[in-house]
Structure formats: structure tokens, C-alpha cells
Amino acid sequence: MSSQNHIEDFRDKVRRGRTCIGIGVGLNDPQISEMAGDIGYDFTWLDMEHAPMNIETGLAHVMACRGTGCAPFVRVPSHDPVLIKPFLELAPAGIIVPRIQTVEDTRTAVAACRYPPKGIRGYGPTRGATYKGLDQKAFLDSAENEPMVFVQIEDIEAVRNIDGILAVEGLEGIAIGPNDLSGTMGMLGNPDAPEVIAEIDRVIEKARRTDKLIGVSTGFSPESFAGWIGKGVHWINLNTDFINFFRESKRVLDDAHGLVEEA
After folding, report:
1. What angle do CA 20, 207, 94 make, to 5 degrees?
2. Which CATH number goes with the domain that contains 258?
3. pTM above 0.85, yes or no
4. Under a CB-based contact definition with an 8 Å cutoff, are residues 173 and 217 in contact?
5. C-beta neighbour count of 202 within 10 angstroms
6. In whole angstroms, what is the distance from residue 33 CA to residue 110 CA?
7. How many domains does the chain have?
8. What is the CA radius of gyration of the chain?
9. For residues 225 and 219, what is the distance between their CA atoms, to the nearest angstrom?
10. What range defines the domain where residue 194 resides?
């Protein structure tokens, strides 16, 4: 299915040492995902946890990435297998699971994304199985290793359990969430606090001793971005579509107002 969702393109970039860069998608228009791919983003982070978006819109976003070389990731609402299941049928490259706290949470999330005997995913494929006429065996072979499954490390309890989480078979990697992590440490809104950074660094250090991929979702500044590169993360989700729209639209409007005042 790699030509459908570019999962192997993403993995190959990481294998070659490239830091992959993505954008958070929360607006409903699937042209956002298409443009993100055309611009050159390596992946999209489709936010089905927070954004006011239904699954039909999610499908349109995933499909919009197909011709671009951009791998669509979907952040699901929780690690509940019942909630994860319909998003698997969109055939995304990656599933990102939020609010993980324990090893058992992680095992549940991974099992939800794999068919028996590796997992508990129910068989009812739609888009993934029919793309280019895949027969059942070909589809099941591809489903052995996709979608990629990432769990978010955004709770201090997950940090305490990080060794066991990283040891879960079938987990592709982790995604660090600095803001929510700071909140579970009693410092919401201060993800750059030394105490938060120390916990993040400890997680990254442990993850780098394994074969797991390390990602982070964060805002952008040159200093922050360089810092994450220096820590050795494999992929970075930078900002969101609506933040970028707001900032660029405000900049254009401010420039226009300035010219009006000068006239």
C-alpha cells in the first residue's frame, strides 16, 4: 500500500538520516493536505482528537495526500480499539495515539492496529484492500507492518513507564507532546521549564538506545527547531494549518494597513 499512503517513502527518508517535517491539519478542506504535500511536507498530522472534523473529512484528507509524496498520519481520539478501528480503514501511513500512560495502554493501541494473531483488529477493510485490486493475501501481507503506530509521550506517568513502553513489540515509535507533559507536571503552558526539558531528554536518551522512531509535535522558532534537531528526533510536526493561516494573514493585513497609513 506504500504507493497509496507513502509509508515506505517516509520510512526510507528516516533510514537515510533525513529529519522529516510535517504540519498539523485541523481545517476541514482537504485541499490543505494536498497543498501540504505539494509544498514539500513529508507528512501531515491529521488531528482527529481536537479538531472539529468527522471521519468522512478525514478520508478526504488522507486521499488528498496520495498524489503528493506526503504520508498522512492520523491522531486518533484515544487508545480505545473501538475508536481506533474506523480510522484504520482510511488507510493512513501512521496512527498516533494520545494520552498513553502505561505499558498496557501501549499494547492495547498496537493490538488495535494489527489483525490476529498479532492483534485484535476486526476484518472489514475498505479502501486499503481495494486499492489497485489487492487480493486478500496481498492486503493482509501489507497490513503486517502498517500503519505505523506511534504513542504520544505527553504524561509524566508515561515517562515513568518509558522503558516498558519502548519494549512493546510492533510499536514504530513515540511522539513527544511537550505542552501536555508540562501540564501533567503542574506547569501547563511552560513546556520549556528545566524540569520538563529534563524529562524529555531522559525519554529521548532511552529511545535512542532502541530501534523506535522519535517524533515531536511543537511550534516553530529557529532556536526551538535547531534544539530538537540536536536532540536527534526523527520527525517533527511543526505548527498547524490554522496557526500558519492566522499568522500569514495577519502579516499581510498589517503590511497593507501600513501602506494605507503611508499613502
Report:
1. 45
2. 3.20.20.60
3. yes
4. no
5. 12
6. 26
7. 1
8. 19
9. 8
10. 2-262
Query: What pLDDT, in 10s, does the model give residues 130-167?
Result: 665 678 888 898 899 999 999 999 999 999 999 999 99
Residues in CB range of 193: below 8 A, 6 or more apart = 182, 185, 187
Distances (CA, A) of 63 to 10, 43, 52: 16, 13, 19
Grid cell 511552560 is found at: 190
Among 234, 106, 95, 80, CA closest to 165: 106
Nine cell digits for residue 239: 505548527
Say how far apart CA 228 and CA 218 lie, in whole Å.
10
* Owner of C-alpha cell 533510514: 15
**In this structure, what C-alpha cell is assigned to residue 1?**
500500500
Q: Is the Cβ–Cβ distance between 223 and 205 less than 8 Å?
A: no
Four-residue CA torsion sign, 72, 241, 18, 95? negative
Among 63, 62, 69, which Cα is nearest to 6's? 69
> In this structure, what DSSP letter does residue 220 have?
-
Half-sphere exposure of 102 (CA within 13 A, CB side): 3
Asked if residue 153 lies in contact with residue 159, where contact means CB atoms within 8 angstroms, the answer is yes
Q: Which residue numbers are catalytic?
A: 50
Angle at 192 between CA 43 and CA 217, to 5 degrees: 10
In tens, the pLDDT along 45-88 reads 999 999 999 999 999 999 999 999 999 999 999 999 999 999 99
